[in-house]
User: Fold these one by one.
Assistant:
Number 1:
Amino acid sequence: MQHPPHLQIELLSKRFEPLKRLEQWQQQHSNAEPGTAAAEALFIGRVRAQASDGAALTALELEHYPGMTERQLNALATACSQRHGVERCLILHRIGRVLPGEAIVLVAIAADRRGPAQRCCQELLEALKHEAPFWKREWRADGNGQWITGNTPW
Amino acid sequence: MQHPPHLQIELLSKRFEPLKRLEQWQQQHSNAEPGTAAAEALFIGRVRAQASDGAALTALELEHYPGMTERQLNALATACSQRHGVERCLILHRIGRVLPGEAIVLVAIAADRRGPAQRCCQELLEALKHEAPFWKREWRADGNGQWITGNTPW
Amino acid sequence: MTGPDSATIRVRLFAGLREAAGWGEQEWSIEQARSPEAVWQQLRLGGDLLTVRIAINHTFAAADQPLQAGDELAFLPPISGG
Amino acid sequence: MTGPDSATIRVRLFAGLREAAGWGEQEWSIEQARSPEAVWQQLRLGGDLLTVRIAINHTFAAADQPLQAGDELAFLPPISGG
């Protein structure tokens, strides 16, 4: 077995630039162990301009459970990374008020092979959507804010 | 039905920076149709430091079939993008001499939903590995260069 | 051995549940909080507990798991992250 | 109607096949190149045609597809891209 996967998990209350953060993450990686991970599977999710009923969306509000959310993300990332034997895992997730077009989630997985990298990225994204305590409220142009119960179809 | 997917496919004989190219691709996107695609699934493949038999690798040489390779990539990307109903598809693939650690392939898919984006990215990567005419030769430190017959396990 | 002040649990509500109840955090006497489902019944929020997930001390838990003084009990409406 | 010079096809080999044959591109008379498998037999490269993919005019084709003057026939060893 190789050494345990490197995890980096952050909740961010301010806008972030996914590619900038990926650049930093890759840099750390290539400084630490040059040339190990040949495969990177990445996912970036952004806020849509429409609410789930099609109305114009002003912003998404993301509530979380401080302490438990971090703990759950860590547990999910550890389990998924070990199950697939990947080398590095990055999760960035916004909290608070997020505007249409802004990145809300970034999942990045580095592994030696494309299969484990892709499978881990996909499973971890599903896991955090359903098993990490986050709640979305859609704020509409009319000032109406409604909690979403459930997730978008896969 | 939405309009046909936007495809960008390039064979590159020089080193490229995946995140720089992704930035340009995202920019075009947000200029053209701001806020449409909420999901991006990305894959970056790099050259390993070891040959398939574990020996140190000096470089990978990539031969292709000018004309047919481009045509096949285009056909594969069109079919896959339409099958999954995704919005944008970027494929960058190196040709010629590629050094360990350098990016050899980038596949990026933008779609309205995470499922189609991820499935399309994954299927297109498999398709181009098996259905687009590329051949890899591993150059070792001892000056020995051997053609690879077949692909790495998924 | 323990004074009456320490024989409590903390109850937390989130998102729609928090707004329905009008509060997000309360101390409850352990006497009235033997299990998550006992607390839920007293909350009278009207929804079905089956649609709500329960966490005790930041870990998912069953509705009948016994509570102990000092525990943090949370009711989590359907999750929608990512 | 067509002169003898135009009644040819172009044969192309890649990677290991190109090196085994010692050439990558040749013109063949259509008389000797009625089908990909007929060409393959004359190449005497020793490998099994089942492990090789065939393309006619940049499109994958079957080993018995008839060839026509002006066609470009290619033999493709196992692909290893990406």
Note: The domain at 8-76 of chain D is CATH 3.10.20.30 (Ubiquitin-like (UB roll)).
Number 2:
Amino acid sequence: MKAVRVLYFASLRELVGKSEDSFAIEVPITGESLWCILNKGIDLPESSLLAINHEYADLQTNIHENDEVAFFPPVTGG
Amino acid sequence: MKAVRVLYFASLRELVGKSEDSFAIEVPITGESLWCILNKGIDLPESSLLAINHEYADLQTNIHENDEVAFFPPVTGG
Amino acid sequence: MNSINIHEGSFDPWHEIISFQNNNLNGVKSYGATASFVGTMRDFNEGDDVVEMVLEHYPLMTQKQLESIVELSIEKWPVQHVLLSHRVGLIQPSDPIVLVVVWSAHRAAAFDACRHIMEELKHKAPFWKKESLLSGESRWVSENTPDTRDN
Amino acid sequence: MNSINIHEGSFDPWHEIISFQNNNLNGVKSYGATASFVGTMRDFNEGDDVVEMVLEHYPLMTQKQLESIVELSIEKWPVQHVLLSHRVGLIQPSDPIVLVVVWSAHRAAAFDACRHIMEELKHKAPFWKKESLLSGESRWVSENTPDTRDN
């Protein structure tokens, strides 16, 4: 069991009702599986994005120890 | 014989050694003919432009009484 | 010389350009072209009256993405300097939100890089807008408009 | 609201934008995008060191051409305001020469119209540059670069 930090932003933060999860989990694990374990019963909205260590990543990308993971909706800055 | 005002700008002004001709001439007359009469022995440089009353015109366009005519090289502003 | 700034409060884009030039480009005679873009909050969006907006972001990723966008644009075009600023937090209509400025020797690179940076920012930088409408509702802006460049 | 200005002496493009906004856009909340371009005199051109430059123009035609360029751009894009300024006379390196600013609801129109106005100005407005080189020679700039837009 390894430490992983998970952040939620904008509408996803509101959807899951928390801005952060920080805990130990079996790694490697894909982003998609991580969401399922952490947010049981809440489907990840279709257009959601995943970042691992501040870089965009595919939902199938493996997450490792000490990674910072973030789930968020399409960006709308500028 | 009708009054026509002719202006020269930039390198064409230097080429003909004057910035303006103002005098009476038989009109209508094309821009090309006007240059030949006013600047005997000086060929109009190939890329030269003509304006009649502050609008671009073809060298074959007819010039009429009281028109303001200008000869100048390609523009280089901005 | 590049400068990337996140503003928690209001900022004036024109004074920011003046400061940047005074501090970094004083006496510099090598740039012939400065292209800039300022994005400002409107009081309407998608047919609705908007009274205010909260701009949320993911600070560490924002910084990394903006730096990467600027770096890649400098590799792609002969750009001399880039100034990029973005507002976060509570924003009112007519407040500036984003500023992108590019200095280059010639106009094509300045125009192209400025627009490219702006489009990249719109589609990659982790910012999110939540609008408060005149009707009392609030909503997340769902998506930015597609890339507006021809190519 | 459009403003077209010919400056016989030096002008500061950023303060000109600030003045325009203060005078005309105070409290206006309808524009979301401001695209601008500033052309500045470099101290080099076509491989030579340039020490100063004289910018000649044909005043009545300049005014007419610039007005026409702005009018046509407003017909082509949903533009709210245009500010266009051009310097004439004796100019030193690092002096601003031209300023084009476009305010619009959305960024595509602002970017497109700003660049269009700049290209049209470069190819239609009757301005001519005569450079004084470090070598002591002086020369007329022979031609502007071709239109830099993709289309």
Note: Residues 53 and 68 of chain B are 5 Å apart (CA to CA).
